Amino acid sequence: MTTIADPKAPRTPRPGPGRRSTRGNTEMYGWLFMRASGVVLVVLIFGHLFVNLMQGNGVKSIDFGFVAGKWANPLWQVWDLVMLWLAMIHGSNGVRTVINDYAEKDRTRLVLKALLYLAFVVVVVLGTLVIFTFDPCPPNSPADLLPSFCTA
């Protein structure tokens, strides 16, 4: 018969020279951040949903023009940026915790965290660039390809 270790029991440190515990105040601050960012994200997400779905004609009115008009206002650019950053940090911290809990080999943990951090950077950089460089009316574009609200 196989015995399964108690999941609530503290994990024994892996042997090795110069190993020190990485669980200290950092984990407590991560835990506190998850709670605070979760509350802020709920407010940001419900505000986002309210504006996108309740004001106007619902989901059928969300199109290129709606997003262009919304992002013409710096308030909504910052709103969406904060929502993107907080969601990515919150989610990445959660996945990092899962990796720490379930990846048993140090090398596996290192590779998974490296991939996680790479994905985080790519999504945050691309999302930030899209929010701040979005131009619904690029100059020197053919008039037939521009939305109706652009002056050719």
UniProtKB/TrEMBL annotation:
Region (Disordered): 1-23
Signal sequence residues: none
Keyword Glycosyltransferase tagged: no
Protein's cellular compartments: Cell inner membrane
Cofactor(s) in the UniProt record: heme
Principal cellular location given in the protein's record: membrane
GO cellular component: plasma membrane
Pfam families, A to Z: Sdh_cyt (PF01127)
Keywords: Cell inner membrane, Cell membrane, Electron transport, Heme, Iron, Membrane, Metal-binding, Transmembrane, Transmembrane helix, Transport, Tricarboxylic acid cycle
GO molecular function: electron transfer activity; heme binding; metal ion binding
Pathway(s) per entry: Carbohydrate metabolism; tricarboxylic acid cycle
GO biological process: cytochrome complex assembly; tricarboxylic acid cycle
Residue spans crossing the bilayer: 29-51, 71-89, 110-134
Topological type in the membrane: Multi-pass membrane protein
Protein role: Membrane-anchoring subunit of succinate dehydrogenase (SDH).
PANTHER family: SUCCINATE DEHYDROGENASE HYDROPHOBIC MEMBRANE ANCHOR SUBUNIT
Name of the protein described by the UniProt record: Succinate dehydrogenase hydrophobic membrane anchor subunit
Natural source organism: Cellulomonas soli
